[in-house]
Write a structure and sequence with these properties.
With about 270 residues, this protein is of the alpha/beta class. The chain has 2 domains: about 100 residues, Beta Barrel (Elongation Factor Tu (Ef-tu), domain 3); about 110 residues, Rossmann fold (3-Layer(aba) Sandwich), CATH 3.40.50. It is about 20% helix and about 35% strand. It contains 6 helices and 16 strands. The strands form 3 sheets. It has a 7-stranded antiparallel beta sheet. Strands 11-10-9-8-12-13-16 form a 7-stranded mixed beta sheet, sandwiched between helices. It has a two-stranded antiparallel ribbon with strand order 14-15. The longest helix is centred in the middle third of the chain and has 15 residues. The structure holds flavin-adenine dinucleotide and FE2/S2 (inorganic) cluster (FES). The site of FE2/S2 (inorganic) cluster has 12 residues, from loops.
């Protein structure tokens, strides 16, 4: 049976990375010690009834000091009520955290060359995955980072310091190539050849486009879907994702996902 923790935990650090982006460290060693890349936590603000529901955030990084796990980090974008309230918290403040939830990415044997494709804040979970795959086992990787503008491109230096090749697009051309990341991926698949696996996280339209490309090029692909979630553990049934091949059958993104083999779902 999966282990699950829920606790009010203190914020270790909280850094503003750009106009809307924040990195937050949370002191939760029990959870951080078992959280796998692609898994997520549900976060609730204390002393606030609006928003009432918890919000899902990917585990972005494990914090280790002197060989001891101290906690984990979130990387988040301020988009609405909860993330706005979170952005005002400081080190020492408490957050109610539940997790780790979901299935996480998998890495089948025989993988030597992978593409990571992130749209904006989708990079949060892929960075943690890259630390496991590239940092620990030397798998060759190309990271595709796409955003509207330069401020949406996060973790570039961190990926480069792992030895990953980083390719960037922005829609306004303020960093990297002007355009969308799916076009750059398409070109890489045509010109550079196929990787053993594509790992992708980002907006739904982008996940759909990447799944289609992966099928066309016959490349294995895992997508992490940012479905709206109310409970995070299979109770509200609000995160249904249609299964491919069995019309009328549904997965639940919070328990069966959020990571799916792109061939298993209708996006
Ligand atoms: C498994 C999972 C992992 C996630 N990981 C991260 C992460 O690491 N970092 C991060 O910044 N965000 C992540 N998200 C998205 C995050 O949960 C939402 O941004 C957050 O719930 C917004 O809460 P809010 O109250 O600030 O905004 P709200 O007021 O609830 O919404 C503001 C706007 O954001 C949209 N929105 C809300 N939730 C989502 C969602 N899940 N997907 C797409 N649009 C949404 C709403 O439609 C609305 O337009 C993840 C979502 C899921 C399902
Ligand atoms: S979010 Fe409630 S069942 Fe998935």
């Amino acid at each position: 049976m999966k282990k699950l923790f829920q606790k009010k935990v203190p914020i270790l650090h909280h850094l503003k990375l750009g106009p809307d982006y924040f990195r937050m460290g949370l002191a939760f060693p029990e959870l951080a010690g078992i959280a796998r890349p692609g898994q997520f936590v549900m976060v609730r603000l204390l002393h606030k009834y609006i928003p009432l529901l918890r919000r899902p955030f990917s585990v972005h990084n494990r914090l280790v000091e002197k060989n001891e796990v101290r906690g984990f980090e979130l990387l988040y974008k301020m988009v609405g009520q909860a993330t706005n309230a979170m952005s005002k918290l400081k080190a020492g403040d408490l957050l109610d955290v539940l997790g780790p939830l979901g299935n996480g990415f998998s890495c089948p044997d025989g993988i030597h060359n992978v593409f990571f494709v992130a749209g904006g804040i989708g990079v949060a979970s892929l960075y943690y995955l890259a630390r496991f795959l590239v940092g620990h086992s030397g798998i060759r990787s190309t990271v595709f980072l796409g955003g509207r503008t330069a401020a949406d491109i996060l973790c570039r230096e961190e990926f480069e310091s792992m030895g990953a090749k980083v390719r960037i697009t922005t829609e306004d051309g303020s960093l990297g190539e002007k355009g969308v990341i799916t076009s750059m991926l398409q070109e890489a698949l045509n010109v550079d050849g196929k990787p053993d696996m594509i790992y992708a996280c980002g907006p739904t339209g982008m996940m759909k486009a990447i799944s289609n490309m992966a099928h066309t090029h016959d490349v294995s692909c895992q997508v992490s879907l940012e479905t709206v979630m109310a409970c995070g553990f299979g109770v509200c049934l609000g995160c249904a994702v249609e299964t491919a091949g069995s019309p009328g059958a549904y997965f639940h993104a919070c328990t069966d996902g959020p990571v799916f083999d792109s061939r298993a779902v209708v996006i």
